[in-house]
Amino acid sequence: MGFLNLFAISSMPVIKVLLVTGLGSYLALDRIDILGEDARKHLNNIVFFVFNPALVSSNLAKTITHESMVQMWFMPFNILITFIIGSALGWVVIQITRPPPHLYGLVIGCCAAGNLGNMLLIIIPAVCKERGSPFGDPDVCSEYGMGYASLSMAIGAIYLWSYVYNIIRISSSRNSKEVHINDLSITKSSSESSTVPSDISSAEVTEPLLSPNQLALPRTRFEEKPQVSFSDKIRQHLDMLLQKMNLKRLFAPSTTGVIAGFVVGLVPQIRKLLIGETAPVHVIQDTALLLGDGAIPAVTLVMGGNLLKGLKGSEIQKSIILGIIIVRYVALPLLGIVIVKGATRFGLVHHNPLYEFVLLLQFALPPAMNIGTMSQLFGAGESECSVIMLWCYALASITLTLWSTLFLWLVA
Fold it and tell me: Mind telling me which GO cellular component terms the entry cites (predicted)?
């Protein structure tokens, strides 16, 4: 297939995303105010709690079988590799650009976590339906492509809320502690200078007075400390880890939808009841598909409205934005080609052009939009995150088209 034909096939999905995103930005303007901040919040809640779970559960239920599970085992490792390499490259960006400490987590998060759900859910069906697509029958391609994209969304959500969430949390808490310590030191120095008389020497001030209780021997000096078993220590560390992790976000509705899709797809008795036109209660599956169809346009409109915040600008260094763009749109896709093609050559990935295309595309996506939610939650670089997202998604229209064309050429 000619390179120009592949370029045309790759550009159509991106153009559709741009059109819907532009409409979302237009509706979010102050003079239009149809998709204002409150409206975006409510629509995002509907997508999060209703549309996304219905979308991923219905598509996985149709495509997940024991055979497909064997083929898709590499995807969780592939996504984990994108997070690990992205984090390492994000650390390099921090060493080069020297951003403020409270932005460390934001930079690493933007380099590590891609938009593994929504973008794939938009791009894959559009590529399948284009004339001349190298993936064969459009209906079969869309069915399996949506299954791959749904699984990618769930795995990405788990990594995002268990890993990136805690990186941003630790970065923001470290900055707040530094500010708190500086405030305490200033307050302490001012109070000491105002309360200590000038005729008292520094030695007299610093010399502590010992109370009778302090002169007495400590009672606990010869007491034995209670022994803590190794299993108790492990249990304590696990309890601390679970308390710090946001389990409510980790087991998001989309993740619950994935679990439901796996149960329906892998249990033959349930599958016969729900899947197929002759299934007794196939109306449940049809309803879930109907609800899931609303996820893609709704989330794209919300994304366009959220990107409008970046137009207001901030004081973020241009070198930080450039570093994140180079990581996400140059370094990661190149490394992704080496990893995926190497895994295919060594037999780790079953030869399937559509599956390989999804694995490659996971390395070339813009940063996850939920990073903006995390920055708002911890108050760490909210305006900077909006500017980063604006530039990354504006350039994604070009980079996604070019990389998709190359990926199609590699797998076709």
Answer: endoplasmic reticulum membrane
Cα of first residue to Cα of last residue in the chain, in angstroms, is 8
Tokens of 187: 């307050």
Provide the domain count of the chain.
1
Could you say which DSSP state residue 314 is in?
A: -
Q: Confidence class of residue 245 from pLDDT cuts 50, 70 and 90?
A: low
Amino acid at 183: D
Centre a 10 Å sphere on the Cβ of residue 277 and count the other Cβ atoms it contains.
Answer: 6
CA 235 to the chain's CA centroid: 29
The domain that contains 356 carries what CATH number? 1.20.1530
* Nearest-angstrom CA–CA distance, 110 and 129: 31
Domain span including residue 337: 3-173+241-308+316-411
| pTM given for the model | 0.76
pLDDT digits (tens, 9 = 90+) for 333-346: 999 999 999 999 98
Q: Are 87 and 168 in contact (CB under 8 A)?
A: no
User: Per the structure block, which two tokens stand in for 119?
Assistant: 């973008």
Alpha-carbon span 86 to 90, nearest angstrom = 6
